[in-house]
Amino acid sequence: MDALDHDLLTAARTGDTDRVRTAIEGGARVDVRDEESRTPLLLGGHVEAARPRAARRLGLALVAAALLAGCATGTTEADPGDPDASSDTVATPGPSRAPEGRTPDGTLLVADFGSDTVTFVDPGRDGSGEGGAPIASVKVGTAPYGLVVGEDGRAWVATAEGVAVVDTRQRTRLALIPYATESGPVTTGEYRGGGMGIALAPDGSQVYVGVNVPGEDGTVEVIDTATREVTGTARVGMRPFDVDVSPDGREVYATDHDSFDVTAVDADTLKTRRMQVAPYGTEGGLGSWLKPHYAVVRPFDGKLLLPFEGERLAVLDPRTGKVTVERMTADTHQHGATLTPDGTLLVVGTGPIGPDDEGPSLTVRAPDGSERIVPLDGPHEDVAVSADGRTAYVTGGFTRDGYGNAITVVDLDDEDSEPVRLPAGDRPLGIAVL
User: Fold this and answer.
1) Average pLDDT over residues 250-266
2) Residues 131, 124: contact at Cβ < 8 Å?
3) What is the pTM of this model?
4) What is the dihedral of CA 233, 234, 237, 239, to 10 degrees?
5) Closest Cα partner for 343 from 284, 382, 394, 300?
């Protein structure tokens, strides 16, 4: 049991309503049980005989604090983002659309970087985006960035405050796990401290989160998914945009944006080794655009694929540190990437950084290296793919200005179809298909 859960049980037992609120807002679980399997609400009832008014206040405090902390099933309206930076308004979930009971399979989950929530999105008819809309939001913590969902339906969300644990089936927050790394004050925006990339071990026993320490090297923190505690920390490069895991679970890879490298972390010993990935060189340092952002691990050989500028695909062999480069054709600044079940690489183009560059796009790169470029309307950030590999969902959040509060849905089978714009959350970045 972690300290916040213990504080909540103690506060409930003694009738301390202020301490109850503080514990739950800090991430304590309202369903935690003591050694006699009593919940905080049940413990609060024992106050009633001696202090009935105090007991009533405690019960109300437990319910209210849980709601404020985003622990209640249903929707929590997101705070509006900066209207000058976004191309459209925040898509607020409609209460009438929220499904009763368990969240349907195929629902999309996005991290609302412009707010403090994750939003559940109905992808529409047959997952096409047509008729889709947000259905519910849950508060998770300031400026959520990356997220990952396990087979048990729990989502792990990297926020500026800690890693939030969300029951996606019931749409509730279960916990907020603070970072062991000191990353400065909780803020928002592209350069905020706190969690960025996040990944699960293949067996679901560990979560690995990249923690940004502004102006310094970051860390990868290891979280035990059973105890929800940080069990280890490894020093990595600057701004770990993305975190991935080898197919056998033995290594964790942090893509270190501002240090032009990838850090490999031994999952058992947490020993690290840095491998430079800089197909354009490192000239310009922190001011350069030509740095690594996201990577994917190729399942059949364990090599990392890192796209650069729609021109070069860096292929990193983590066993040797050797980088080979393959040609790409989108000619646009690139961020998020994923692989479809058949090995097709999807890469998000955010738009031009120079006068001769092309606009935002989605690159669909077949295993043989041939590419199809799908134009997108406005900058986008990350991408996920449907279970059948036929549909791509591209988040419009983007880490810089010009973002949109939407998901673009791309039919990967029908080359003649037009992408569908689906309203979704507040500056959505990370995305998963439930």
Assistant:
1) 98
2) yes
3) 0.80
4) -20
5) 300
